[in-house]
Amino acid sequence: MTTVAIDIRGVSKVYNPGSNQAVQALDTVSLTINDNEFFTLLGPSGCGKTTLLRLIAGFEQVTGGEIMLFDEEIENLEPSQRPVNTVFQHYALFPHMTVAQNVAFGLERLKKPQAEIDATVERVLSLVKMKELGDRRPNQLSGGQQQRVALARALAPSPKVLLLDEPLSALDLKLRQNMREELKQLQRETGITFVFVTHDQEEALAMSDRIAVMSNGEVQQIGAPTDIYEHPVNRFVADFIGDTNFLDGEITSVNDDLVTCRVGSESLFEAANSGNHSVGDQVTLFLRPEKITLSAAGDASRQGRVANIVYLGNQAAYTVDMGDGIELTAQARPREDGNLPFATNDTISVDYSARALRVLAI
Amino acid sequence: MSTWLPKGASSRRWLGLAPSYIVIGIFMLIPMVIMGVFSFLEPNPYGGVKAVGSFDAYVKLFFEYDLEDQLVFNPGYINIVWRSFQLSIMATVLCLVVGFPVAYYITLQPENKRNFYIYLVTIPFWTNLLIRTFAWIIILGRGGVIELPLQKLGIIDDSLRMMYSDGAIAVGLTYSYLPLMVLPIYASLEKLDFRLLEAASDLYANRWVTMWKVVIPLCKPGVVAGCILVFIPCIGAFIAPNLLGGGKKLMLGSLVQFQFSSARNWPFGAALSMLLLSAVVVSLIFYARAAKKRALMEGEV
Which of A57, A95, A110 sits opposite B202 (nearest CB)? Predict the structure, then answer.
């Protein structure tokens, strides 16, 4: 059975309450994080995700609601009394201590025997591949190495939950991608619950077991990466995760599998029927660019004119003018000789399955 | 482009630095040399020195002539030196104990308020030290600001006899040089990354451990600088010892002043000054060594 690691019940947080600078950072957020789960809080900056993390760590106090850690109320515990550790965005390594001293810090505070501390420091440092650099000081390390030390330091006391506050944001792209895999692997190996905060949707999709998408202090959707990507509950989620084509229109007919929707003045689009739709509803349709197949003009039902091309190396993003004020973005791979398959102003056919086009509640 | 530039560069640099060399020379080097030379001369009974070489001034530090004209060890002056060190260390520790929390408190204030507090710390410097030390006589003295209310309330009958004691001198010194402790500590605390405090508390450190293991080690340069800035003027101080110690509890500074004024033994005063100077130089060398070692330890890549 799954154990609940963190139960967040109707938590609100207002900064500077009662003053004219009061900011509602979280508005009655409820969610549960399971034990041994890689859980990601995803959202744009200012959405409250870091605030939620800091509430769990104990650096901030909740304004309302409660946070349970393994069925224990932690509201009245100081950060130093909570069995959670944090990997900080800017690492916050102690500059006057060596790498090994940094990693040992938490263990020493827990009054572990020296032999155990030494053994744990060595084990954790080799876990993050930093065993050789234990005598260095933080300012002698690269950003990626500091990141690993911060990780080792937080893992060393074997916390019940590891909180990660945008730990990869300061690294360059290549390193970030490597660290993603390592973090995921580390989570599996240690079995510790990871709560990961990020604004990078790719990071979230790549690592998480479940994702909570947040905006304006509220949770918009919680689900597995595929759920969030394929079945976003609203326009915000669909827009924030990945690239999307949105079509606003009105339902003109409904049958079992499909609804038909009028977009623009006269264009009709068929979309998957996700239930509860009736004729006359104002809806938003969304279609992921990768679900669209572009080909040279033939007898396809839909044709459009290439309005714009953005070259991305392994593919190119095409903006196709479908007429009637409708534009769709789609992707195409370069041909084997490296040239792009279509040029601006080419007329091409645009194919997709009606099942790929989904109706969003507005 | 210009062939004259490198050729002229070194002489032009000398020219540019000349004012500072002149200032250092006139205001520091020459007086110090005069002091050094005087300490090896004989005193003129009417003040000043006689141009006769002698080591008497240094001998006088440790010995005196007894009735049979034999040199015997005289601990009197060494005791004064020893007490000066004791009182200066005491004042430095008091300054640290009082100054550190003050500096820490200021650092925790919102940024726009900090300058105001720093400004408050420096306000005493606007008034003459002599007058401020006299104020302490009113505070500590018989029937003064502290004693009078206690006497009126019947808590004490007699005087507390706070004046003219080592304690009074230490308090006076602490008061005089406290800003010199607060300012450097504040300067180093201000640079402290307060996220490190969060990291420490996240890693199970309570407030005291965080203070001891993270805050204090990281602002050690400021603490050391503050201690030196307080200790050095304390050991040469003569206003607080004279006024609050009643001139009976002599410190090095008072002794030097006494030799140049009433005692009219300039060479001995100069010798005492040289002793003072060497004590300060030795402590600065230790500090510089420690700082260099730390820089090497933390800065090497």
Answer: A57
> In CATH, what number is assigned to the domain containing residue B99?
1.10.3720.10
Residue-wise pLDDT tens digits, A247-298? 988 888 888 888 888 888 888 888 888 777 888 888 888 999 999 988 887 7
ipTM: 0.82
Among B198, B202, B215, the residue to mutate for chain A (most A Cβ within 10 A): B202
Residues A116 and A247 in one domain: no
pLDDT band at A176 (very low <50, low <70, confident <90, very high): confident
Task: Please give the residue range of the domain that contains residue A250.
Answer: 243-360
Q: Mutate which of B203, B209, B211, B220 to disrupt the A interface (most A C-beta within 10 Å)?
A: B203
Give the Cα separation of A51 and A73 in Å (integer).
18
Residues B220-249 as b/e (b if ≥16 CB within 10 A, e otherwise) read: bbbbbbbbbbbbbbbbbbbbbbbbbbeeeb
Q: Please indicate, yes or no, whether residues A228 and A274 belong to a single structural domain of this protein.
A: no
Tally of structural domains, chain B? 1
Residue B160: pLDDT over 90: no
Same domain, A233 and A253: no
* Best CA proximity match to A156, nearest among A193, A184, A118: A118
- The residue in chain B having the minimum alpha-carbon distance to the alpha carbon of residue A86 is B202
Query: Do A92 and B300 count as a contact with CB atoms less than 8 A apart?
Result: no
